[in-house]
């Protein structure tokens, strides 16, 4: 087994991982302690799912806007299940990170005078979302990747699949990684490790996510005893394309797009988001600019009432942009036009786009403190894989791209500080953990006939998550999903793979990803079942549980791994130091809330 | 406005049928020889080539290896040759093909296994052109006392924006006969990326990049075949970027000549 030593190992090459790498490099320079940084990713960094983010990144920008307003929007958007100290830090550091991106060359869209342009986004009181047409994540990711090339101290390990963390006496000492091209294991010894491995949208059948979004980093930390927090909160984005789930950005609505049911009626006015705003005059926090949880729930209600249309086998509603005019649509939303034409043969300039909700974002994740550190010393997490406490029960659109930057940088800096004061662990400790991983791989590929099919297990997992943990949930449905995950975890032990090749064995990767998925799906189901209230993206149809219950559940769920036994759940207090829970109000009900 | 018509129009589009595709296999663990493998698959009007590969992987043959991720033509992972033409698997639809469909790994790159090629040289070329803003001074980190962005008008943005849309899929390298002959040629995507930064009003790095661009393996290896732009799935037009780059390189040479 090859062994390499680094001060800092970063797992994940998306927005958070790249920002962490650059942040660590700058921090090391500032401290005068040269440090070697390894950046591992199971794909080339520019393939990371940050690339698919479309709409934009939020920060208080205009003179009329205030940090307090961005704070209030985020806290109420998250239905008060957020860490308010963390939100406060976030809103105060958002703008500088977007400026830093600009100074690194990000092609933000501009006003005529050359200043950065902002657009409206759902659940935000005012326009504060920076954007690069409708490919904001793509441009941010490429800008970060290209900028990272300036730093020789960052050594990339592209297409390395991290199998496990090496942990000794409560501290992380490195990682064990599989080089995909050769099938060989590499041990990377480190003084600090940052996980930036993304979300877990692929637990669900119908989602907007890339194939790589399988929750591997979450599972790795979880198996070493770190809590997964608030995993029951899974965001359905209201506008995915039927069939594929491909994302149609919220920016469509920010720019003035409207949602219609099959009768051509703007149904959102019936769900506490009205009154109807005039065509082409979107208003913040009204109608189509409500938060994602409420919009996805409204779709479900329309579907139950038989007022959705059909596209192929899918129930759909319609996103109409036509009144914006061809020139404006092509300037602001060119990628949406390309996607709708290519994947469903609809030209948004001429026809409304059929859409339906699709799983989009994992609000919960690896629990960290406000400095991004987990309960394992030296192990940090940032971005979608983490639960630093920013999003609570429902994330606002355009907060997560900014989150990658604010907390990616913070995690990188913290890791660098820690590495400067820490020594490497004894390398034999790492070797022992490497041997265990090798044995596990050999078992999966031992050439015996598979008693269980990973394909079957994967399909059973995504079906059960969708049926039991969807937009609206019931006790019975969640119980069934949880039982299913527990059975599937047992059945996984009998999975063997056909492909015994060492070189680029993607069947092996699929199996490892599935094993991660099953572990964290159990955590998600358990959190959902035990949260006997409705809050944000977690809505129950059970009697007595259809409302928010702050007396019993203004608490984070924490799920702890127990090996082959059932996972365990505990409750954790929420940091509500600035803003007491209140009614979430949108449309006219929220009138009077001023910036 | 009623949407019934749209509904009616779309419902009947999914007619399932069977398609036959051939995939070039290479399994270096077992043999140095490549071979063709045949698969029959159920398809409908919406089936992409990537959907077909995923169907093979899950239902017919789990040993087939290929790259993919976003399935929406933005991550750049799934480039392959389809009947000899470089394409993104996720944006290629089987409905558009009559008769045989032959799938091979991207041309001009070393094949690692099946449809997976080694992109290392591509990454090296990207890094070689210094694809980041270069200022007169190093780009200043954010100063909380002066949180200023650069100014850039929409017109200035428009000069380079198209060239910033490259997804690094590598199709243009498979289309480029010069890269096929000489892998040291920086190639269309890297030259386009250099041009993107050279055109950026915030950048002062043209001189620093010219050493790479203005040499045989830089812009001057391009013979203007133009196939790179034809296969580009994002309409970046690398051929235009490379040839504008030639003009810049020639100017640079002349100026250097007069300056002695």
Automatic annotation (TrEMBL), chain A:
InterPro entries linked to this entry: FAD-dep_OxRdtase_2_FAD-bd, FAD/NAD-bd_sf, FRD_SDH_FAD_BS, Fum_R/Succ_DH_flav-like_C_sf, Fum_Rdtase/Succ_DH_flav-like_C, Fum_red_fp, SdhA/FrdA/AprA, Succ_DH/fumarate_Rdtase_cat_sf
Subunit structure of this chain's protein: Part of an enzyme complex containing four subunits: a flavoprotein (FrdA), an iron-sulfur protein (FrdB), and two hydrophobic anchor proteins (FrdC and FrdD).
GO cellular component, as recorded: plasma membrane
Superkingdom classification of source: Bacteria
Protein residues bound to FAD: 12-17, 41-56, 216, 384, 400-401
Organism this protein belongs to: Halovibrio variabilis
Keyword Flavoprotein in annotation: yes
Catalytic activity, reaction form: a quinone + succinate = fumarate + a quinol; a menaquinone + succinate = a menaquinol + fumarate
NCBIfam families found in the cross-reference section: fum_red_Fp, PRK09231.1, sdhA_frdA_Gneg
Catalytic residues of the enzyme: 292
Keywords on record: Cell membrane, Electron transport, FAD, Flavoprotein, Membrane, Nucleotide-binding, Oxidoreductase, Transport
Domain Fumarate reductase/succinate dehydrogenase flavoprotein-like C-terminal span(s) in chain numbering: 459-586
Top EC class for this record: oxidoreductase
Protein family according to the UniProt entry: Belongs to the FAD-dependent oxidoreductase 2 family. FRD/SDH subfamily.
Membrane association type: Peripheral membrane protein
GO molecular function (one): succinate dehydrogenase (quinone) activity
Subcellular location: Cell inner membrane
Cofactor(s), names only, from the UniProt record: FAD
GO biological process: anaerobic respiration; electron transport chain; fermentation
Main subcellular location of this protein, as a coarse class: membrane
Enzyme Commission designation: 1.3.5.1
Binding-site residues for substrate, renumbered to this chain: 237, 249, 360, 395
Keyword Transferase: no
Protein name stated in the entry: Fumarate reductase flavoprotein subunit
TrEMBL record, chain B:
Catalytically driven reaction(s): a menaquinone + succinate = a menaquinol + fumarate
InterPro entries named in the record: 2Fe-2S_ferredoxin-like_sf, 2Fe-2S_ferredoxin-type, 2Fe2S_fd_BS, 4Fe4S_Fe-S-bd, 4Fe4S_Fe_S_CS, Beta-grasp_dom_sf, Helical_ferredxn, SDH/FRD_Iron-Sulfur
Pfam families in UniProt: Fer2_3 (PF13085), Fer4_8 (PF13183)
GO terms (BP aspect): respiratory electron transport chain; tricarboxylic acid cycle
Entry keyword set: 2Fe-2S, 3Fe-4S, 4Fe-4S, Iron, Iron-sulfur, Metal-binding, Oxidoreductase, Tricarboxylic acid cycle
EC number, as in UniProt: 1.3.5.1
Domain 4Fe-4S ferredoxin-type intervals: 156-186
Gene Ontology molecular function terms on file: 2 iron, 2 sulfur cluster binding; 3 iron, 4 sulfur cluster binding; 4 iron, 4 sulfur cluster binding; electron transfer activity; metal ion binding; succinate dehydrogenase (quinone) activity
Similarity comment text for this entry: Belongs to the succinate dehydrogenase/fumarate reductase iron-sulfur protein family.
UniProt name for this protein: Fumarate reductase iron-sulfur subunit
Species assigned in the record: Halovibrio variabilis
Species classification: Bacteria, Pseudomonadati, Pseudomonadota, Gammaproteobacteria, Oceanospirillales
